[in-house]
Fold each of these.
Amino acid sequence: MNLAGYSIAIAVGLLAGLLVDRMIVRLVFYRSLFWPGRDRCSHCHASLPWTWSIPVIGFFLAGRKCRACGSALRSRAMLVQLLTCSLIVGLYHLYFRQVGHGGPGFVFPRNPFNYWENHLQALWIYHSILMLLLVAATFIDFDWMMIPDSVTVPGMILGIGLGTFWHVELHPVLLFHPDPGFSTGLLSSRFFEDQLGWQSVPGWLESARVGFNEHWRHHWNAWLGFLTGMVGLLVGGGTVWVVRAICSWIFRVEAMGFGDVTLMAMIGSFVGWQTAVMIFFLAPVSAAVVGIFAYLISGQKAIPYGPHLSIAAVGCVLGWAPLWQQTAEIFEHAGIVIFMAGGMVVVLVAVASLIQAIKMLLFGMETPAHG
């Protein structure tokens, strides 16, 4: 076991947890994450001592109560920091546990790249960024029933940007798989003659073809990473937007916040369209069970859907290898995916209708179901 590596992972996780806690508290109010440096009491807004900024133990060092008004400090900050740290350390263990044993540290099924230690570092950082964004979005959604663009829009930029300019291998499954001659160019000199029936190719078009192939030869991995992230963003956000539009039309009220759409788009930009589809299928299971029990037990009418998208995303990232081994053949047939997606839309609408019927039967009221 690499104790130094795990120590670094724990330190990074705790600092990330501190950042996530600030995101939860400040971003909803459009406040800076770094200024002022000290956090404030949620009751009297007095500045907290600097020891509060020490991860986990800062709650105890600060005295657990505000020195100005005597109100209890947010003990949930420790939970947020420990949860974020656990996810980041869990990723580190998953990706680095085989390093030093004579084999690649991690291999995504159906991804043509072997992840050696230098690539694993990028992969770990990339998915750690996704994890801290998911934790922030989850707790904000619990608190305010909304997910601010200040979480998801920078997440989309990071997901696509890092996947484009850092390593194409960061995505679990690429948009399409390169063959041995993939980087030599896309357009051959005979393409226009054979496919379009041209007798000769104009000189300017031939020059453009040569220039394009030269550019592709040197930058194909960046374009492939960009396309993988963009398609994941569009598929992820698009599927939730379709469900949102259908449910809103049926119930004549907004069935999901638009933050759920942007959250799923952000997730797709990190993990690609195949993983986004899996998350789309898995999240409603958690939402339906939790939503019905929450309403029956506490009478809670509004069900934040963002946390369930985040839970499904975390599960898919951590358990991608066995998930893909069971579902890879499905994604090779576009017709099956489209059919299943349509079926899931029907299931989501049916679940929302069931929740509505239970409310009317047990409480005699007609209230909209929220996602």
Amino acid sequence: MRSQVGGDPGPSFNLARSWAHYGVSAGGPHVGAIVVWPHHVGKIVGHENGQWIVQSGNDGHAIRTRPRSLAGAIAFRSAYASAAF
């Protein structure tokens, strides 16, 4: 995720939970938001057939884009108050 935002926020963001404090609150899920789970982070890149499409790294040891449940998410963040990725 560090390579997917405007500027690399640094190695402390190698820990997924750190992303819960990145940027500003996204106010909930939407395309372009960063979704944070306790041990995983991804970027919402779509919404199809009632499912959120999330791109994330280290998902089954690969970078994947797939429908994911947002259950258990602890934060939805945006890099800037009015900007999407």
Amino acid sequence: MQVLVNLIPLSSDIWVYLAIDILIAISLLFTLRLMSGKMASVSTSNELCAQDNFAFGISVAGRMLALCIVLSAAAVSSDKSDFMGAALSMLLFGLVGILLIKVGRILHDKIILHRLDKEAMIKKRNTSIALVDSASAVSTALVISNVMVWVEGSDINALFAVFSGFVVTQAILLTTTRIYERRYKENNQSGSFQRSLTKGQLALAVQHSGNLIGTAIVVSAAGSMLNYNPVGYVSNLTGWLIVGMALTLLLVALVIIAKRVVLAGLNVVQEVDQQHNIGVASIEMVLSIGIALIVSGLVA
């Protein structure tokens, strides 16, 4: 009789590792939820339930998804030689992930979107800002997680490599955001990209979220083209930066072509920037992420 399912033999210890990883993950997610309220000087329960602040919920959800992405990489790269080593590796990378996600939000607030007060906008229920905030956290986590899989072990050299990936992510997100800001200004009679977000322009937020996540996906693919050198701190940093930026520029060009073909006959600038058409913005978001996935798959 033909075998219907051919399973790869699994170690009997897999359930123990699963229990350890899930326990640590849930504990860290709960910690992240508490920290989100403390950092914003609000009660998470009050904001989510009593105030029904959807923007705050979207922002916290984005950070939770970002943490889960980082933890998934920690689970893959953790040492499976013993239970204690696996738990410590998972906990270490999880705490590093929380730290870098938090630092990334601060940098995104103070440097990338420096003309607005993100926390204040989220408190005022600005879902556009919250959506971009979530996309920023997820973008940072995508690159960090791929660097975690790229490195070997969980020693100090691996942590330096992870930090290098974080720096590269913020640099490229800053560059791409400035490019899109400039293009928005040219297409909207010197209008301000960040000011439009503060006014609750949701279509623009959806469009830009796709840009951020798509950029992170192609930057993550740089690991497939680079060799890991535990003590090559400079080469690791410059390698990720140069290859990541090259892939980002390739993505920008391909997305422009894809949008002109797929959305032929539509005035995208008018639909998204002026008429706030979320449907067209959603298609743009999918094209950015979809093309990024294809490029990433090809490189890998």
